[in-house]
Specification:
Length: about 270
Amino acid sequence: MIVIQMQGIKREYRMEAKKGSASKEEAVVVRALRGVDFTAEAGEFVSVMGPSGSGKSTLMNILGCLDKPTEGTYILDGIETSKSNSDTFAYIRNRKIGFVFQSFNLLARTTALENVELPLFYSRRGKKEERLSTQARRNRAREALKEVGLGNRMDHYPSQLSGGQQQRVAIARAMVNDPAFILADEPTGNLDTEMSLEIMSLFQELNNQGKTIIMVTHEPELAAYSKRIITLRDGELVTDMNVSERQNALENLNHWKSTHAEIIPEEHFQ
């Protein structure tokens, strides 16, 4: 089943000349995306790569329904988004997309469980959908935290969690509404090597369970954990290829731990 279907996506920004300027130059049009075609099916794990200024952030904003294209069509899980109104956009962001950001974006004075529960509390309902009860929201949030391995950290605040654990909470929050896909923007940018491998291992596990993941990254080492890589340059999609030698994040994590284990002298235990 096709989850994401983009055709001829263009995004242009018009930079107006300053008023009162002596210069008679006309407004400048910046073409951030120049007709991108991109399709992703359910269960894919796609990395989006490209140098600075390639259009990655613009594409991510359109994928996440944070912005609309100037031209082209974007159908997400059967919904034509490029012509949607603001209410439909809000519904799509809440129900169809799970966001995972580099900076976690957790509420500091709210427990892990309450952070994960927030999308359910603010959930946009369809015409035939009933609002979840308090207990149903709480149960679904608990299950999401258990799924990311934090069943014993539900009552902890972000300050009581490691960076990797905070990102796991963010991933649980992204999944709690069972979105059409997870959109991850540099999800390990604030993490060290071990925690980065933990997060990539979790993404691979979720993907193996059928979750669709789109990850924006500038690191080839991280892209090697996905199944497919698309590359942007100057606003155009220049390559789209499957990963032929996909890395196993759990294996690499175990290897990293074995080679970086702290060696403690035997007399320390005497």
